[in-house]
Design brief:
globular; 6-stranded mixed sheet; 5'-nucleotidase,  domain 2; Purple Acid Phosphatase, chain A, domain 2; 14 helices; about 30% helix
Length: about 500
């Protein structure tokens, strides 16, 4: 006779400070107060409930950036997740600040693979074992260097490099706690859906991993992806939905007997609002609204930034702002740094900071025409065109025109103001600090190679301050009409 127990596992990922309820087509959706209402409702209705977050609580809203995550921790404390793992944006305010925020949290934050290089000591607890109705449920947090590029700015901090090392670390932790008679094992990852599948494929079935709950790629699923017998899920991003597993756990075999999974819409029909949390969020929102409601500029229409892997009107506007302010030949503005899908027709300081919340130094470096063509071909490699691509993609500034042939995998034309750029021509290029420090990952060229042309230099210490000044000085702006990137399919 089987010994079965039910476990209800709720999960979110990539919340990105998405605290506020939105009105879409006269319907209220999302917001942490309704999300909390749903979690509380399920906790009352079901016996064994766990709520987890798979990374990126921080960055993406004005409330979060204004208080450097402290507001987020207070809000998350009221939401009361049972376990949270770290995402790449958890380090946006610096690792020292993240360690401070962890001390402010009333919930466990786990990560198995961030460590001090000098002695190998982990920065966080690698795992958490929850005892629920006589069951022991093991959670392990995983993040890899391919995602956590920000740690390259922290010379004392290391992290696991690749999926194989991550799998080995999972194996070590699972083996170490077999004596605890673990009934159920969950990996909380923040590495993207493709990497989750690669990880699941190489996990030893004897380690007993039952589920992977992931984040980072913001993937919206209709059903779990099963690899090596392990269901893999995400809940897209933000608070518009929450994932729900209802699992029958076989406590003799320490495995899933059966399960159902669904994405629950966070709306009034499914989620009663948490009034206490609503009041806390409104307190922060009132303060930030009054401070950041100043109008900077006006556009003739609303401009969009719907996807990260193509040229957009918003991308061109922001790239031009840096080029014109800093006297560059080219500004490469990362698409992923633009966090909203539209802007205008009126842009306030709040709109600006929600569109681009990262306040960084801007670097200028020099590349030859030949090097730059090579960089473009790396950026435009086949995987950059996937629907859920998470490779780096850059918006181009005024004067550039690039023609890329996908069949040939080659830049067939690169010109500046109508003149083809020669191989030996030197170009002054601007990039934000994070992307400059990760040139190899984003553009396939090393900082050392670039430095041989000329010493890179910081030419702006605060990118947000520069943008605020630029837009305030240009009260009426229009998106450039010219096409700067031409993709030829044949």
């Amino acid at each position: 006779m089987k010994h079965l127990k039910k476990l209800t596992l709720l999960h979110s990922n990539d919340l990105h400070g998405d605290f506020l309820v939105e009105k879409v087509d006269d319907k209220l959706i999302g917001g942490v107060s309704m999300l909390s209402g749903y979690v509380n409702k399920v906790r009352k209705e079901e016996k064994n409930v766990v709520y987890v977050i798979a990374g990126d609580m921080f960055q993406g809203s004005l409330i979060d950036s204004e208080y450097k995550g402290i507001s987020t921790i207070e809000i998350m404390n009221l939401l009361a997740p049972d376990v949270v793992t770290i995402g790449n944006h958890e380090v946006d305010y610096g690792l020292a600040h993240l360690l401070f925020l962890e001390k402010c949290a009333n919930f466990p934050i786990i990560n198995a693979n961030m460590y001090l290089k000098n002695n190998g000591r982990r920065l966080f607890h690698s795992h958490r074992i929850l005892e629920i109705d006589g069951m022991k449920v093991l959670f392990i947090g995983i993040l890899t260097e391919e995602v956590l590029q920000k740690t390259k700015l922290e010379k004392l901090i290391g992290t696991l490099v690749d999926i194989k090392e991550a799998a080995a670390e999972v194996g070590r932790i699972c083996d170490a706690y077999q004596t605890e008679d673990i009934d159920f094992t969950v990996l909380l990852t923040h590495i993207g859906i493709e990497a989750d599948q690669q990880l699941a494929a190489i996990l030893d079935t004897r380690w007993g991993v039952d589920l992977i709950i992931g984040g980072h790629s913001h993937t919206l699923l209709e059903k779990p992806i099963e690899v090596n017998g392990i269901p893999i899920v995400q809940a897209a991003s933000g608070t518009d939905q929450v994932g729900r597993f209802d699992i029958m756990v076989d406590t003799d075999l320490n495995s899933i007997d059966s399960y159902t999974w669904q994405l629950i819409p966070v709306d009034p029909e499914h989620c009663p609002e948490d009034a206490v949390l609503k009041d806390v969020i409104e307190k922060y929102n009132t303060i930030t609204e009054s401070k950041y409601n100043r109008i900077l500029t006006r556009f003739p229409e609303r401009y969009t930034h719907p996807v990260r892997n193509r040229e957009t009107a918003v991308g061109k506007i922001f790239a031009d702002a840096f080029k014109k302010s800093l006297g560059l030949d080219i500004m490469l503005h990362a698409s992923g740094s633009l966090r909203s899908q539209f802007i205008g027709p009126v842009m306030t300081l709040k709109d600006l900071q929600e569109m681009e919340p990262f306040d960084e130094e801007v670097y200028r470096y020099v590349a030859t025409g030949k090097q730059f063509r090579r960089m473009l071909e790396y950026m435009l490699r086949d995987e950059a065109f996937d629907a859920d691509a998470h490779t780096e993609f850059y918006q181009f500034s005024e004067g550039m025109r690039v023609v890329y042939n996908r069949k040939l995998k080659k830049v067939t034309s690169f010109s500046m103001y109508g003149q083809e750029v020669g191989d030996d021509e030197l170009l002054r290029i601007g990039m934000h600090q994070f992307h400059f420090k990760n040139l190899q990952t984003g553009l396939g060229i090393s900082e050392a190679e670039i430095t041989r042309n000329a010493m890179p230099k910081v030419i702006a210490t605060r990118s947000l301050g520069l943008l605020e000044e630029y837009f305030a000085a240009h009260p009426h702006l229009s998106a450039p009409e010219e096409t700067r990137l031409v993709i030829v399919e044949e």
